[in-house]
Amino acid sequence: EIEIHGRKLARTWSLLSRTASAGSTQLFLKDDPVAMGWRPGDRIAIATTSRGESTMHTIASIGPPVPEPPGCPPMPWVKKSCSVNQCLVLANNMLNRNCDFYCAQSGLKCVAAYEEVNDDCNVKAALGCGETYPDTWDLLCECEAPPPSEEDAIPADATAVHLEEPLRDEHWGGFRDVLGRRFEMAAEVINLERSVLITGDHDDFYTTNRGLHTIITGTGFADIRYARVEYCGQRDLMGRYCMHFHLMGKCPKCVFEGNSIVDSAQMGITIHGTHDSLISNNAIWNARAAGIYTEDGNEMNNLI
Fold first, then answer.
1. pTM for this model (two decimals)
2. φ/ψ (deg, to 5) at 283
3. How confident is the model at residue 152 (pLDDT cuts 50, 70, 90)?
């Protein structure tokens, strides 16, 4: 019988309630970070909502927000946002078009225009707002931000998660209007920090793809909650998973709840020949296989 219980988090993940721009160091979450049990020093991960990547960050502090400059509304043809206020963007579909035309589509005024370098935010040549650039499909266009609306204003009592590292890319948050309908389209933010750490070999994990593995089999049960399992799983070896219920039969006491699995060379969580278990509120980051896996397909009455 195995029981491992770390410090409980009221929630292990949330959603962005406001869009976070590239370069920003603060996040606004749908749920109160303090009430969720999140703390400064916690490592968190933010899912991509663009051509960028999901990234990991460290919480520097949790508290009142820092005022942000007025921002631009979502604009068309954006390949990449290049400023915190989302007014400088790398725009596509710009062959024989200029930034005056681009900004006017959103009811805005162009204030600067550039030819970019290699699909990024670096400047190759400065242009006039009414100037085109020969044989290019992409331009950097900077539009003038409109005055902030009441809807865009940050509430005075808002709580922000402040990051040690700035965001590399824009991450959507809150709701968006799509073809006359309103949808919540927001990045997931997951907390990967736990008070109990189960860790594998750090030295050559990325070259060998051989980390630790855990397996619960035979009689008894395992109840593991709010632990972090990292550098785990063994590539191409069946049964060598980060967290694994193996042929436990009917096991209502088998629980994996609130754990974080970070950097896995195999399945994150495997349920094999096990029934009636609980797999709940786990966060899996950078698993190089399935996140949660029922191995035979005949596993019954597991609550996932």
1. 0.80
2. -115, 125
3. low
